[in-house]
Amino acid sequence: MEEECLWGEGHKKAVESVLSAVLRGNTTVLLGPRRVGKTSVVSVVAEKLRRRRGHHYVYFNFSRFIGSKAISIADIEPKRTSLKMITTSKSYAISFRGISVEVRKTSIGEFSRDFSALVRVLSQNAKLGVLIFDEAQVLARLKNIDFRGLLQEITDSYPNISLVFTGSMPGMLVEYLNPGAEKPNFMRSAEVFTLPRWNAREGRDYLLAGFKSYGMAVTNELELLRAVEELGGVPGFVSHYGLTVVNFVRDGKSPEEALPLALEESRKYALEEWKKDIKAFLNVYHSGIYIGVLRVLAEAYPSALRGAEIYRRLQSLNIAPTRVQHVYKYLETLVKAGFVRSSEGMYWIEDPLLREAAKKFTPP
User: Fold this and answer.
1) Phi, psi of 247 (to 5 degrees)
2) pTM of structure
3) What share of the chain is helix, strand, coil (3-state, %, to 5)?
4) Where are the beta strands (DSSP E) in 105-262?
5) What's the CA gap between 170 and 16, in Å, rounded?
6) How many Cα atoms are found within 13 Å in the side-chain-facing hemisphere of 242?
7) Distance CA 253, CA 351 (A)
8) Any idea what DSSP says for residue 179?
9) Does residue 302 have a cis peptide bond before it, meaning omega lies within 30 degrees of 0?
10) Rounded distance, CA 247 to CA 262, Å?
C-alpha cells in the first residue's frame, strides 16, 4: 500500500491518474490483465486517501469469484476500510450516532437498505468517501439483483462519494457498467485507464533492485531481460521469478545456476495460472469452440488471422460453429475477456505464455 514499493512508470502514473479522477468526483475504471498490479495501484490510492484529512474508503475484492457462474449478496462484503465505525466481516456492522445496523443479507430488500445505510454513513463521516470494487466484472453474475441500481443511487444522491472499479476482463466490465442509453448510466463522467505490463527494462530494473535488497549480486542482465519477455512482462510472474531466484541462492546455488532454474519454475507457475484463467472463463462460457479459437490463434502466431480464416481452421478440426458469422461472437467475447487482441479485423493472442497454455489446455 506504500507508493515507494510500487514499480513501473505506468503503475505510478496510474496512481496519480486514478487519484486525480477520484478527487474530481468522477467514476474511475482501471483495466488490465490479472496479476498486472491493479490491486496494488488501488491500494496505494486508498492509502493516499486515508492520509488526507476527512477522506475515507471502503474496499471490496471479488477476485476469488472470477469464474463463478453466480454470486450472491452474501458475497458483497468490505475487505478493508479506513472508517473505523464500519467493520469488515461476513455480516458487517455499522454503528453511527447510537444506531447499529448489521448487514445480515437475508433478503434482497434488507441488503439494499443496509448497503444504502453503509453508503450514507460513509457520506456523512467523510469529506470524500470512495468505494473501490476490485474485479468488478464479477458483479454481472450477481443473482436476483442488478447492483447498478445501487451504484446509480450513489452517484445521484451522494456527490461526496466516488466509485472506483478494476477489471481484468476489460470489455465485460465496461459493457456491464455502461449497458446502453436506455438504462441508468452512472458512467457518464467515468474516466477509464489501462494499466500496462512492464517493459523489459522496467522488469530488469525491478529484479536488480530486488536482488540488491537481498544482498545478491546478479550480473547477467541479458538473462533477466529474457525472463521478463518470456513471462510476458506481467509483474506478478516477474515477482515470482525474482523470489524463486532468491530461494535457489539461499539453498546454495550460484546466481548463474539459479537464473535459468527459476525461469523454468516461473514459466510452469505462469502456465498453470493461465490455465486456471481459461478454466474459470469456460466455467461461465461453456462452449468448447472458445478453446478451439484460442488454440488456432496460438498456433498461428506471429500471424494474426481474420475471422474467416479462423472459421476454416476450426472446420478442419471439426469444431466450427454452424455459420462463419458465429465465429465473430466467440471472438468478441474472447476480446472482452482480455484473452485476444484485435485490430482492423485481425485477431491474435499477445501473451506468450497464454499462447502456450492455450495449446496445452485440455477441457475438463
Assistant:
1) -65, -40
2) 0.87
3) 55, 15, 35
4) 128-134, 161-167, 191-194
5) 21
6) 25
7) 30
8) -
9) yes
10) 9
Contact 85, 94 (CB under 8 A): yes
pLDDT digits (tens, 9 = 90+) for 165-206: 999 998 888 888 886 655 556 666 789 999 999 999 999 999
Q: Rounded to whole angstroms, what are the CA distances from 303 to 263, 309, 349, 351?
A: 26, 11, 10, 14
Q: At what angle do helices 289-300 and 255-284 cross, to 10 degrees?
A: 140
pLDDT tens column, 83-100? 876 655 544 555 554 445
Cβ atoms of 88 and 80 closer than 8 Å: yes
Q: Tell me the one-letter amino acid at 188.
A: R
Residue 170 C-beta-side C-alpha neighbours within 13 Å: 16
Count CA atoms within 13 Å of residue 89 on its CB side: 11
Distance from first CA to last CA of the chain, Å, rounded?
38
DSSP codes joined into one string, 182-239 = TS--TTTT-EEEEPPPPPHHHHHHHHHHHHHHTT-----HHHHHHHHHHTTT-HHHHH
Residue whose entry in the numeric block shows the C-alpha cell 505510478: 12
Residues in Cβ contact with 106 at an 8 Å cutoff, skipping those fewer than 6 apart: none
Contact 281, 339 (CB under 8 A): yes
